[in-house]
Predict the structure.
Amino acid sequence: MFTAPPLPPEAKRPSRLRGALSAFGLGATALVLLVFNLVLFLASAYFVATPEGMYHRVWQSTQEHIYDPAVLGDWRKWEHKYDGQLPNDDVAAEKITEMLSSIGDRYTYFMTAKDVQAENERSQGNFTGVGMILGVKTDANDQPVKAADGKPLPETNADGYPLIKQLMNGGPAKAAGLKVGDAITSVNGKDTRNQSLDQIIGQIRGSEGTDVTFGLRRDGNDFTVTVTRRKINIPAVTTKKLPGAIGYLRLEGFDQYDATDEFKAGLNDLKDSKALIIDLRGNPGGFVNNAVNIASLFIEQGTVVTIRSRIPGDPKSPQYETETLKLTAKALVTETTDSRQPGVTTSSSGERQPNMAGDRPVVILVNGNSASASEMFTGAVKDNKRATVVGTRTFGKGIGQSSLRMPNGTQLHITSLRYFTPNGTWLGDGGNTQSHGIEPDVVVEAAKNLEFGEDSDNQLKQAIEILNLKIGGGSHTFFKTLWSCAG
């Protein structure tokens, strides 16, 4: 459910180079091609400030870094609004959140030191929780429906109760018997109707070893289940070898530091496959460098992405830098333009990631919860005509956030860039005002209570049929046999 990554625990002060690529919803690591840094202009790694100093630091950084300063409105009114009224960091955090909420961009937000720690753990492949994902409610135009506080509402059943959209393998929720499609009627006795996603998730989260009791409704029957929260280790990649020499690789997210290495290992496991299925359904995104690196594993030559980012400075005259990343047979090349000066600067990162997929047929599976880095990857591979996209329209988040260190171990995640697919398509701002997403080549609506890779997975069945036609393997009627094969 996270759309922006933590900074590495020991991040160093970065150079300007690639600063704008710190994140597009989730950020980038220090190892990105040509070192895509995670932050823009860190004042210091861990500096201490008074609550009022922290508030003012966020106020200043917001106007300097936000992509479109016009969304700030009368930003001056916030500068001294709470002077002398911030007795501690907790109160300062509340007022900072109030200030940032006025922008109307749910991807620009403040993280407390505790939140930062939790995000660091998640990016290392583990977190504490129950292993559950809820869907986002959308309107007729596929725009997120928001609560009175501006936060998105969960997808619900006819009675208004949020629905479980995904359960993590090996997670305590799945082990306790919860199922995709179950409606959550209560959390620890509190009714879940008319609550935002953030409110519900806040009730579900807790410390390791503590219990959370869910009221559930399944097939018209109400019951309760108590789940013990624990640390969950999430492998970024899982693979299967399917009948017909088709390889299946599921990527949970681009937000783990080792996602590229895990993806390469997965492709190596599937090196004998004649065709590949890459499952990005429910993938919320991740680090920019992972999106670029993993796309490189499928593209011999061509444009990967174009990113237009705000150059930090005076909000009255915002300046921008545009970088187009292109692959040659041997390197990743960046063409850069700066609004402050004429001309194009070209640079090379040196050696690129190898095209491990070769010319094998590829299908990418996506849905409405495939966002950010997953859309960057899908757009790159699709526009370069290296894959057929199957499923439903993606989320539509063509904006990105930089992660800025703030005083006392806190962070500011702020929308600082837009990115465009190789064909020049902007995917939208994730529902703040508009959301376009990527339209699949083959639209397949999800079957009721679909679980990825299980008997109900009609989208995966369609992907297999498409690839069998491409490689001449015929069709496979009995889906249950697919997952009996060792992967």
